[in-house]
Specification:
heterotrimer; A alpha/beta (180); B alpha/beta (367); C alpha/beta (262); B: 367 residues; alpha/beta; Rossmann fold; 2 domains; five-stranded mixed sheet; 35% helix; C: 262 residues; eight-stranded mixed sheet; 8 helices; 32% helix
Chain lengths: 180, 367, 262
C-alpha cells in the first residue's frame, strides 16, 4: 500500500521535520520504505513551506508525490497552494486555528496551535500535535513507531513534552471525528 | 552490523566520504550542498581529520589539492556557481595528477539561477570546464544509498587514476531522505605510493599512472601546473613533451573506459531504450514499472564520464533512445555521437523531476 | 648546510634576467632555512605564478608551483592536513596583492603557521612589465603608459591589519637584515610575512630611469629608512619623502595560530 502525505505550512513551523519524523517512523520502525522530499525557498522563517513523505511496502521508485492521499495543512497559504485541490478520496488534517479553507475531501479539524499554547505553553509543538492527529486519523504509521521517531527527532530534554503533544494530537483526532 | 538508516542524500555523501577515509574537507557554503560541509565540520575533528571553510571556492579546491599532496584523502562539495570558480584549479589538479573528490549538488543555472531547485546543467562543465584537453571521471547517484556508496568509490577511483573524480548529484537526491543501509565498512583501495625516491616522479607505470609521491616523505618532488617532463621539471616549449604528457593524462582514464564503466542494463532486447543518469532515473524506473512492456529498455549510467560509447552493443535491437535530462539535452548530445539510431531528448528545466506519464508518452511517440 | 646545498643543480641556470633581485632573496631564504636547521623532508616550498613563483622549482625539496594568486590557499591545505610540515611560500606583488589579495588577508586572519616571502618588484615581470597594485603613482609600465594613476597597497601594513604574527620589510640591498628577518619569520609561530623590495631592471627600471641593476640597488640603499627613524620623524612632524622605503621589523606577536604542530 502506497501513501503520499503532503505537509504544508509556513517556514518555522517544523513542516519539513514533520515529514522527516513520519518517514523515519515508517522506514526504521514499521520496516516499510519511505522517501521524504521538500520544496523550499530562500526564507528560513515565513514563506510557504511544503514537504512530503511517501510510504510504501515496496521500494519507492519515483520519489516525488504523484497522487497525494493525505494532507497535513498548517497555513491558509499552504491550503490554497497545496490542499485546496485535494481529491475527494483523500484525507486532510487541518489546523483550524490558522486554516480558514475547507476541502472537498474528508477532513479532521485540529486546533493544534491554540492547544500547543494552552496545554503545553509551547507553540512549537503544534506540528507534533498535528502528527499525532495524522497517525490517529489514518494509522499511516504505527503508534509505537511514531513514538520512537518523535523521541529520536526532537531536541534532547524535550522528549516527554513532545510525546505528550503527540498523544494529545491522537486524542484530538478521535474527538474531531471525520468531517463532514 | 550494517544499520538501516533514514538520512538525507547530502549526509549520506558525507558519511560515505568518512567511511572511505576522507580526512580533509575544504569548502565554502553554497545551497544546496551545504549540509555536506556542515556534517564534515561536525564529524572530521572527531576522527583527527581537518575541516576548513575557505574564503571562496577557488581557495577551497586549492586547499584540497594541497591537503591531497600530504597523502590524505581530501574532498570538497559545491554547486554550479562554486564549480565555475573552481575550474582553473581543477585543471591544475588534472595536470599535477592530484587525487581528490569533488561533489556537485547541481542546481538550476546559469548564474545564481535556482539555488534550491535541482538541475543537471553541469554535466559538461565537470567534463570540459577547465581549459585544455583532459579527462576526468564523473559518477551520478540516483538514490541516497548511492550517495553513500558512490562517494566512497570516488576516492578509490581518484587514487587509482590520480585524477579529480566528480560526484554529480543534484538537489533532489542531495536533499531527499530515503531508507538506506549504512554498511560497516566500504572497500578502500590502498594508494599506490612510491616507496623510494625517484628522479622521475612523473614517470608513469604500465597503466599510465605514476606512483604517488606525497610531501614530507623525502621524494623532493616538484609539482607544477606547467607542462613538465617525467622529472616534474617545467618544459613548456618542447612540443613533444606537451603532447606526450597530455596524451597520457587523457589515455590513463579513457583507455580503461570499458573496465571501469558502471551502468545498469534493463531489457537488452528492447526496441525503445531510456538512457538516464541521476534523478531522472527514478522517473524512468517508475515509467518502466507502470508500462510493464519488455520492448522498452533502460540504460542507466552510474558513471557518466568516461561515456560508455559502446551502447549499441548493449541494445542491438534498439530503434530509438529516449534521454530524459534536467537540462536542455547535454548527454543526449554525447549519445548522438555514438549511435546511428534516433536520440530523442526529453529536456526538463525548472527543477521539477520528469513525471513518469511524460516518459510513457515519449515511448508512445517513439514507436 | 648552506644555501647552495638547497638548489637543484640540474635546474640551473634560472630563468631570471641578468640583474634580477629574486636570486638574492632566494639565497637569503635558503640561508635562513639552513640556519634554523630544517631538513629537506620537513619543508615544503609553495608558490603561485610569476617570476618570484619560479623559486620553488629550483629548490631540492618538496615543492608546489600552483596557480596565479592561490599559493596561500594551497599552502593552507598542506599545513592543516600535515602540521608537521614547514611551509615557505614565495610570491610576488601581483600574485599576492592583486589576484591573490583575498587569500592573503584570510591567511593572515587565520594566522596559518607559514612564512611568506613576497618579492615586491612593483611590476608584472613575467608578462613583460604591466602595472601592479604596488606600482608607484606616476611610474611607467606597459599598462600605465602615461603613469600609474592608482594608489598602492602597503603589503606589510596589510598583513599586520589582517592579523599576521610577524611582519618585516627589507630590500635586496639588505642581504643580512633580510636573511635575519626571514629567519625570525621562520621561527615565529603563525603567519610570518616578509616583504622584500627587489629590482626588476627589465620590467620596471628600464622604463623608470633605473635602467641598470645597480641603479635600483642604489635607489634601495639611498631611499630606505629604518622604521624607528621614520616613526621618530613623523612624531616630530618632519617631512619624509614619499618614495621612502620604510624597512625593519614591524610586528612580532603571539596571536592564536592555526595549523601549529600538533
Amino acid at each position: 500500500m502506497r501513501h503520499e502525505i503532503r505537509f504544508s505550512g509556513f517556514g518555522g513551523q517544523g513542516i519539513i521535520l514533520s515529514a522527516v519524523i513520519v518517514g523515519r517512523a515508517a522506514a526504521l520502525y514499521d520496516r516499510k520504505y519511505a522517501v521524504q522530499t521538500q520544496v523550499y525557498g530562500p526564507e528560513a522563517r515565513g514563506g510557504a513551506s511544503m514537504s512530503a513523505v511517501i510510504i510504501d511496502d515496496e521500494p519507492i521508485l519515483y520519489p516525488k508525490v504523484r497522487h497525494p492521499d493525505i494532507f497535513v495543512i498548517m497555513s491558509q497559504e499552504g491550503f490554497l497552494r497545496y490542499g485546496a485541490d485535494a481529491p475527494e478520496n483523500a484525507t486532510m488534517i487541518l489546523d483550524t486555528d490558522i486554516v480558514q479553507g475547507r476541502p472537498a475531501c474528508r477532513w479532521y479539524g485540529i486546533p493544534a496551535t491554540s492547544e500547543a499554547k494552552s496545554a503545553f505553553g509551547r507553540v512549537i509543538v503544534a506540528n507534533i500535535i498535528m502528527i499525532g492527529s495524522l497517525v490517529g486519523a489514518t494509522g499511516v504509521v504505527g503508534t509505537e513507531a511514531i513514538e520512537k521517531a518523535v523521541r529520536e527527532s526532537v531536541p534532547r530534554g524535550t522528549e516527554d513534552l513532545n510525546l505528550r503533544a503527540l498523544k494529545r494530537g491522537m486524542e484530538l483526532a478521535a474527538e474531531a471525528g471525520r468531517s463532514p | 552490523m550494517s544499520k538501516i538508516s533514514f538520512i538525507q542524500g547530502n549526509i549520506a555523501c558525507a558519511e560515505g566520504a568518512l567511511a572511505a577515509g576522507c580526512r580533509f574537507f575544504g569548502g565554502y557554503p553554497i545551497t544546496p550542498s551545504t549540509e555536506i560541509a556542515e556534517h564534515m565540520a561536525m564529524k572530521l575533528p572527531k576522527v583527527k581529520g581537518t575541516f576548513i571553510q575557505m574564503e571562496d571556492e577557488i581557495g577551497s579546491i586549492a586547499a584540497v589539492i594541497g591537503a591531497a599532496w600530504t597523502g590524505v584523502r581530501a574532498m570538497t562539495a559545491t554547486s554550479g556557481p562554486g564549480l565555475s570558480l573552481m575550474m582553473e584549479n581543477i585543471g591544475y589538479a588534472v595536470m599535477t595528477e592530484t587525487p581528490l573528490v569533488i561533489v556537485d549538488i547541481q542546481r538550476g543555472g546559469p548564474s545564481t539561477g535556482q539555488p534550491t531547485m535541482a538541475s543537471q546543467g553541469d554535466m559538461f562543465q565537470c567534463r570540459f570546464g577547465s581549459h585544455g584537453d583532459y579527462s576526468i571521471i564523473a559518477l551520478s547517484p540516483a538514490t541516497v544509498q548511492e550517495m553513500y556508496e558512490m562517494t566512497a568509490e570516488a576516492f578509490n577511483l581518484a587514487d587509482r587514476f590520480r585524477v579529480p573524480v566528480f560526484l554529480m548529484a543534484d538537489e533532489i537526491i542531495g536533499h531527499m531522505r530515503e531508507k538506506m543501509t549504512l554498511p560497516d565498512t566500504v572497500p578502500v583501495m590502498p594508494v599506490r605510493e612510491r616507496t623510494e625516491r625517484s628522479t622521475l616522479p612523473f614517470k608513469a607505470e604500465k597503466d599510465g599512472v605514476p606512483g604517488f609521491t606525497p610531501f614530507g616523505k623525502g621524494h623532493h618532488v616538484h609539482v607544477t601546473g606547467l607542462t613538465h617532463d617525467e622529472r616534474g621539471y617545467p618544459s613548456t616549449t618542447n612540443p613533444d613533451v606537451h603532447e606526450r604528457l597530455v596524451t597520457r593524462l587523457v589515455a590513463k582514464v579513457e583507455s580503461t573506459r570499458r573496465e571501469i564503466a558502471s551502468y545498469d542494463v534493463t531489457n537488452p532486447e528492447a526496441e525503445t531504450v531510456f538512457v538516464s543518469y541521476g534523478a531522472p532515473t527514478r522517473a524512468v524506473w517508475q515509467a518502466l514499472h507502470d508500462l510493464k512492456d519488455d520492448t522498452v529498455g533502460h540504460f542507466r549510467l552510474k558513471m557518466v564520464w568516461p561515456f560508455p560509447d559502446w551502447v549499441e552493443e548493449l541494445f542491438p535491437q534498439a530503434q530509438a533512445y529516449i534521454v530524459p535530462e534536467m537540462n536542455l539535452g547535454l548527454i543526449s548530445r554525447e549519445l548522438e555521437r555514438h549511435v546511428t539510431i534516433p536520440v530523442i531528448s526529453v529536456p526538463r528545466l525548472g527543477g521539477a523531476l520528469h513525471e513518469p506519464e511524460e516518459l510513457i508518452r515519449a515511448v508512445e511517440g517513439a514507436k | 648546510m648552506n644555501f647552495m646545498d638547497w638548489y637543484r643543480a640540474d635546474r640551473l641556470p634560472t630563468i631570471f634576467c641578468v640583474g634580477c633581485g629574486n636570486g638574492t632573496v632566494i639565497n637569503c631564504a635558503l640561508t635562513a632555512v639552513s640556519e634554523v636547521g630544517w631538513k629537506r623532508e620537513e619543508v615544503v616550498f609553495v608558490s603561485g605564478i610569476g617570476c618570484s613563483s619560479r623559486a620553488p622549482g629550483y629548490i631540492d625539496a618538496d615543492s608546489l608551483h600552483t596557480t596565479h594568486g592561490r599559493a596561500l590557499a594551497f599552502a593552507t591545505g598542506i599545513k592543516l592536513a600535515n602540521p608537521d610540515l614547514q611551509l615557505v611560500v614565495f610570491t610576488g606583488d601581483g600574485d599576492l596583492a592583486a589576484i591573490g589579495g583575498n587569500h592573503f588577508i584570510h591567511a593572515c586572519r587565520r594566522n596559518v603557521d607559514m612564512t611568506v616571502i613576497c618579492m615586491n618588484n612593483q611590476i608584472y615581470g613575467m608578462t613583460g612589465g604591466q602595472g601592479s597594485p604596488t606600482t608607484p603613482r606616476g611610474a611607467l609600465s606597459t599598462t600605465t603608459p602615461y603613469g600609474a594613476e592608482e594608489g598602492t597597497f602597503d603589503l606589510t601594513a596589510l598583513s599586520i591589519a589582517a592579523g599576521a604574527n610577524f611582519a618585516a620589510r627589507w630590500t635586496s640591498y639588505h642581504v643580512k637584515e633580510l636573511t635575519n628577518a626571514i629567519r625570525a619569520g621562520l621561527e615565529t609561530p603563525g603567519f610570518s610575512f616578509i616583504e622584500a623590495a627587489v629590482q626588476c631592471p627589465t620590467g620596471y627600471g628600464r622604463r623608470n630611469r633605473l635602467r641598470e641593476p645597480e641603479d635600483m640597488i642604489e635607489f634601495f640603499r639611498t631611499h630606505s629608512m629604518l622604521r624607528q627613524k621614520y616613526d621618530r620623524l613623523l612624531a616630530e612632524g618632519k617631512l619624509v619623502p614619499p618614495d621612502t622605503i620604510v624597512v625593519g621589523e614591524f610586528v612580532r606577536r603571539d596571536r592564536p595560530v592555526l595549523g601549529g604542530k600538533k
